[in-house]
């Protein structure tokens, strides 16, 4: 088998090397290592490979903590020291900004760190009935596969959820529609833990009794979801406490439903909001837009600082939740929320929001290209803070802001929202030149 020295890591956490000028992406390899590898996919311009032997290991290599590492596709970087993971993600961000957007930040912000394990308070766990493999499988998808990894623990989930996985195996195996329960959505908050069972057909009375007994035994709420997210409803208990998370620095409590989008890492979310407020610097008398505002995660801290915030979100359900959270926190007079498709933003639709001093943008992976293109000379906020979950689309949008809209990229840095994975969360500050 071929042997090569690994040069760097790519955005998916794979080692990168070149053999006779051809790029080879090697899963399980780290920069500086000399490895033996086997190619499993060959393309004209690149190859995908898997490590078969570490000839010379990196000093940053660690023993993966999870017993399912290498099979489960959830965490691809457990073999790399956690501090080195953040440094690698910072390089991924910088490389994307330069190679995709041809821009460089004037300042690199220190990486935002938090817990390396037990941090994932939101998760969708797959369920499959596979008699050939012994019955019910519960876990995340296997690496490079649509199959479910049969997991008995997960170290990135909160400990009480990880410890619950074997009992979930037994529970699903006992219900009459085990082949019609494809997913369990986990939502953990300061006040409650909810398990939403996606049921593709109604449960028998005996099945509902089993789920209720499981909920009582494990101190969780069992919900059912027979259709889309809006159909999720409590099975047992019927009147359990609602889900909520707190932002103590801003004296804010956020209510949410288990199928709402919220950040999975509570500790990093708090630190990311702190960094965002430091960069945005909301002040009384300012009018600030929070685009892709969700249920008000950034909006309410902006309002708490004294500015008037205009939140815009595509989901009418989340807009209603944001307005409700503003009311709960006594911030309704300094906030307003609107439902609009920001992927179709125009100069007119942005102008309809009124004069804006500053803007915060927190889009999904697709980025905010329509928004940045729609910024006009007449409505050009002095400062834009861009929170991103995809370095490539951030870089693309940064190119428009810098080269077409007259902004300067003052700084950028990563927040390690998903330790042990290759996912890169980042934040950037743009100021009008």
Describe the model.
With 433 residues, the chain is an alpha/beta fold. The chain has three domains: 61 residues, Nucleic acid-binding proteins (OB fold (Dihydrolipoamide Acetyltransferase, E2P)); 211 residues, Rossmann fold (3-Layer(aba) Sandwich); 115 residues, OB fold (Dihydrolipoamide Acetyltransferase, E2P). It contains ten helices and 22 strands. The strands form four sheets. It has an eight-stranded mixed β-sheet with strand order 7-21-22-20-19-16-17-18, sandwiched between helices. Strands 1-5-6-4-3-2 form a six-stranded mixed β-sheet, with no helix packed on it. The chain has a six-stranded mixed β-sheet with strand order 9-8-10-11-12-13, with helices on one face. Helix 1 packs across helix 10.
Q: Helix content range of the residues, please?
A: 10-25%
- The N- and C-terminal alpha carbons lie at a distance of 54 Å
Q: Give the strand tally.
A: 22
Number of helices: 10
Major β-sheet profile: 8 strands, mixed
Q: What is the CATH architecture annotation of the largest domain?
A: 3-Layer(aba) Sandwich
Number of domains: 3
Mean pLDDT: 95
CATH-defined topology of the largest domain: Rossmann fold
* Secondary structural class: alpha/beta
Spans of at least 5 consecutive residues with low confidence: none
Choose one word for the global shape: globular
| Structural Rg | 23 Å
**Per DSSP, what share of the residues sits in E-state strands of 2 or more residues?**
25-35%
CATH homologous superfamily annotation of the largest domain = Vaccinia Virus protein VP39
Q: What is the multimeric organization of the chains shown?
A: single chain
Main sheet: strand order: 7-21-22-20-19-16-17-18
CATH class of the largest domain: Alpha Beta
């Amino acid at each position: 088998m071929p042997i090569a020295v690994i040069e760097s890591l790519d955005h998916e956490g794979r080692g990168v090397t070149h053999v006779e000028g051809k790029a080879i992406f090697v899963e399980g390899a780290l920069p500086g290592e000399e490895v033996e590898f086997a190619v499993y996919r060959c393309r004209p311009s690149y190859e995908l490979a898997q490590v078969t032997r570490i000839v010379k290991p990196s000093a940053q290599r660690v023993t993966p903590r999870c017993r399912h590492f290498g099979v489960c596709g959830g965490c691809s970087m457990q073999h790399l020291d956690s501090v080195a993971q953040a440094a690698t993600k910072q390089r991924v961000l910088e490389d994307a900004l330069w190679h995709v957007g041809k821009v460089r930040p004037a300042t690199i912000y220190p990486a935002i760190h938090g817990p390396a394990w037990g941090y994932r308070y939101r998760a969708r766990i797959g369920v499959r009935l596979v008699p050939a493999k012994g019955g019910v499988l519960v876990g995340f998808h296997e690496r490079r596969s649509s199959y479910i990894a049969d997991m008995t623990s997960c170290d990135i989930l909160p400990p009480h959820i990880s410890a619950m996985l074997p009992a979930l195996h037994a529970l699903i195996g006992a219900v009459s529609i085990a082949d019609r329960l494809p997913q369990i959505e986990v939502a953990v908050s300061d006040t409650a833990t909810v398990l939403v069972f996606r049921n593709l057909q109604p449960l028998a009375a005996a099945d509902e009794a089993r789920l209720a007994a499981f909920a009582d035994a494990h101190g969780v709420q069992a919900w059912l979801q027979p259709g889309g997210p809006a159909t999720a409803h409590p099975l047992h208990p019927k009147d359990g406490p609602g889900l909520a998370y707190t932002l103590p620095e801003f004296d804010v409590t956020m209510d949410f439903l288990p199928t709402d989008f919220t950040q999975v890492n509570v500790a990093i979310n708090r630190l990311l909001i702190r960094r965002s407020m430091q960069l945005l610097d909301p002040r009384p008398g300012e009018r600030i837009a929070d685009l892709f505002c969700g249920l008000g995660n950034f909006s309410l801290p902006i309002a708490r600082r004294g500015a008037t915030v205009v939140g815009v979100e595509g989901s009418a359900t989340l807009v209603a939740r944001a307005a409700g959270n503003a009311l709960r926190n006594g911030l309704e007079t300094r906030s307003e929320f609107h439902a609009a498709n920001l992927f179709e933003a125009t100069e007119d639709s942005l102008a309809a929001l009124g004069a804006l001093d500053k803007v915060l943008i927190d889009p999904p992976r697709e980025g905010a290209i329509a928004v940045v293109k729609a910024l006009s000379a007449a409505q050009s906020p002095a400062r834009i803070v861009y929170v991103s979950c995809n370095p490539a689309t951030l870089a693309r949008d940064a190119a428009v802001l810098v080269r077409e809209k007259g902004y300067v990229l003052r700084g950028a840095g990563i927040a390690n929202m998903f330790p042990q994975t290759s996912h890169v969360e980042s934040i950037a500050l743009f100021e009008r030149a």
